[in-house]
Structure formats: C-alpha cells, structure tokens
Amino acid sequence: MAAMKLILVLCFLFGLFSVSSAIRQYEVRFKAMTSSPYPHDGRPEVYIDGAWGTICASDWDMNDAEVVCRELNKGYANSITVSGTLPAVTGDVGNECLHRVKCYGHESLLSECEVLDKTTRSGTNDKGIVCYPPSSDAGLRLNYGPDKYSGWVEVKLSSGSWSKLYGSF
C-alpha cells in the first residue's frame, strides 16, 4: 500500500497525472443609472447559462465590487448599492443571479472569484456598484512642467475646462 502511495505521489510530481477544476467563465456588463451624478453607478449583469442575469449575493462586499469595477474598466470601487436605487431590470435580463460570490479584491475578473451558488432572482436583492472613474477620466493632470512627472496640478471642471489647483500644502 505504501508503494502505491509513493507511485501516485511521484506521478503527480512528474506531471503524469494532473488535477484540474473547471473554472466557469462569466461575461460581465454594466447597466448604468441614468439619474445618478456618478458616471459609473449602476448594476453589474452577468451572463449565466445562456442569458443575462444579476448579482444577488447576500455576502456582496467591497472586494467583490473592486473586482467588477476593474474588469469593466470603470476604475475603483467606491460603494455598493442595493436594488432600491438600481435601474429597473428590462429587456434581455433573465431570472438567474449569482447568489454566493467571494472575491478577495486582487482578482482581475469575476470569473477568478469563488462563485458558490446561483439562484432564481427575486429582484429585491440585486446588487449594484459605484466606481471611481479610471485615472484617465478622473479630471486631474500635470501641465506646464519640463516632463510628464512635474508641473501644475490641474482639475477638470464640470464645464470641461481645466483650472490650476491652488493652496498651501
């Protein structure tokens, strides 16, 4: 029996056998809120078993939101929201939702997170996110410096024009 265990261990070490788990790939999209002052505020939607669904995880937290904001190129997670403030579910969104999601915050994709369960959505516990915009949209820049690492700090105003940031630091 000990010889059999030794042979199995050696086979795994030399790659003759391998253990793999099927990782489920989720496609994610973003349904933006039209009435929000934030440009990246809304509900993430996930392609589940041939139809679009939502995330209804009771354990949804900032780590999960961070990963979804990153995957969607929406910047960094600012907060999480619940269904009362989200856009109405319309069109091609079905009844499935991801119920148990566990991200640690370092993942690049929702598919890299642990998704333990899916369920039929009730519509009352859909999860949403508010993301800080990516740095290219953030409205900050350095200008009038000798190189790209120095200069005046400027802020983009709501009118679209730029203004120097003044103050004592």
UniProtKB/TrEMBL annotation:
Limits of the SRCR domain? 28-132
Residues making up the signal peptide according to the UniProt record? 1-22
Q: Does the keyword Ligase apply?
A: no
Going by the UniProt record, its keywords in alphabetical order are: Disulfide bond, Glycoprotein, Membrane, Repeat, Signal, Transmembrane, Transmembrane helix
Q: Does the keyword Methyltransferase apply?
A: no
Detail the disulphide connectivity of this chain as listed in its UniProt entry. C103-C113
Gene Ontology CC, one term: membrane
Which one Pfam family would you cite for this protein? SRCR
* Transmembrane feature ranges: none
Q: Please give the SMART domains that the UniProt record associates with this protein.
A: SR (SM00202)
Q: What is the recorded name of this protein?
A: SRCR domain-containing protein
Natural source organism = Strongylocentrotus purpuratus (Purple sea urchin)
Taxonomic lineage of this organism?
Answer: Eukaryota, Metazoa, Echinodermata, Eleutherozoa, Echinozoa
